[in-house]
Task: structure prediction
Amino acid sequence: MEIFNIIVELIQLPAVILGLIALIGLLIQKKPASEVIVGTIKTMLGLLIMSVGIGALIGALSPIQAMFEAGIPAGGFKTFVTFDEAVVGAVQGANLQSIGAAIAWTMLFGYVLHILLARITKFKYIYLTGHMIWIHAGAFAILFHSFGLSLFWTVFLASIVDGIYMTLSPALAQPIMRKITGNDNIAFGHGQTLLNMVGAWVGKLVGDPSDSTEDREMSDKLTFFRDMAISISLIMIVVAFIGVILAIIQIGIPGVEENISGGQNWFVFTLLQALGFTAGVLVLLQGVRMLIAEIVPAFKGVAEKLIPGAKPALDCPVIYPFAPNALIIGLISGTIGQALGMVALALIGWPVPLPSMIAAFFASGSGAIFGNATGGRRGAWAGGFLWGFLGWFIISFAYKFQVFGDLAAMGAENLGFTVPDAIVPGILIWLVAKLFGV
Amino acid sequence: MKIATLCGMGFGTSMLLKLTIEDIFKEQSISGHQVIPWDLGSFKGQKVDLVVAPTDMKSHLKSSETPVVYIKNLVDKEEISEKVLAAIQDIENKRKGGE
Result:
């Protein structure tokens, strides 16, 4: 009986299920035994490493949040960090009510359905962006779980939405992708699709594609943002010091050192928290890396066998070489969009997502490239800006109305989702559920 | 030979580069190489023989002691194949020369 109990407990652990998926994938690829063992263990370690990173990240974020809370007068707004990997990682790691297991199963069955749909419908795309496969499985599983469904129904419904999402979103973006890449060989596989398409539609209205951003030379000074460690550090240092200065204005330096920093000098403490947050992010990303490293090749191998000739739907940076100038415009206009979005949200008293360089570079950058494809230079500015501005509203909406349930209670404190492809379907399903009184 | 593929986050584009390079090795029946995806921030200090990175990372990798191959079109298998195989050949020739 004891062995039975051990097995029952084990197969509810997210790390074990993900390890199992990797194991099956490696076996299907007929890898040698040593690689199978190493790959399986590394996948399991990935999730555990992620939890360590999340712990550090939340640990550093809490005092920064406390500074904003102390610095913003009562009745003001609340701030939070928007970061998909952190939300899913934290919820899956905490594994309350077996939600972590539901996420892992959704990742598997959602992908199975995706391959099935790609095989039988005309949408011949294979979604290959590993962290996005995981994040969407996570978002949809968390969504259905928040309606109080059982593990089975959570996985069942989340897998259906996930499979449909991965099949349709590359198809939605493909007309623009053809314009960007000049051929029909690759597709777009990233959770930004919906806002990128908004960028493309608005670009068409305001601009002219023949006035491309790529006709001019631009300086490459901003490419230092390529180094995530540096760009996240810089932005968090700025954010944390804004927080501590607001707090000092309200409660003074003694107040900060007494209530928030635990006696440590406020300046040193603030700097340490900002860097500690970045360190947490880096550990988290290392975990994500290990988690998907074995699963993506397995998914790819299976999909290619079953759907020959399908187009791979790939991560957003594959479009960067086609419009590097638009990318930089997106980084700038996206940052402006985020800043204005934050001000607007603060004014109406909605929760304010703190600035994110990941969103400015990867999301607004891609939004600008989509905008450039339909509306040239103006389209690029519009695409990047809208991703930041409109994106911040959508992100805030999901956080404010707890579209994905009480994420803080599930382990993701002060964290919210970013990608519109998870949030917008999430809001729609949430509204339907509300209509039916769930 | 140990080959690192780079991107900003270390699991998106770098993973795709890794898969492409492994496909190329398979097609050409080349073996004995290990391809590892990495992020730009934390790969320094890792000991690898060859780095494969997108062109826009050039300014970050100027000081790299390891040979770097820059890929302009990340989905162009021919470009990747040509550049990476040439670089591997180059490194192997140098090693033989050094002995």
Observations:
- Chain B has a mean pLDDT of 87.
- The radius of gyration of chain B is 13 Å.
- The domain at 2-98 of chain B is CATH 3.40.50.2300 (Rossmann fold).
- The beta strands of chain B are 2-7, 34-39, 50-54, 68-71.
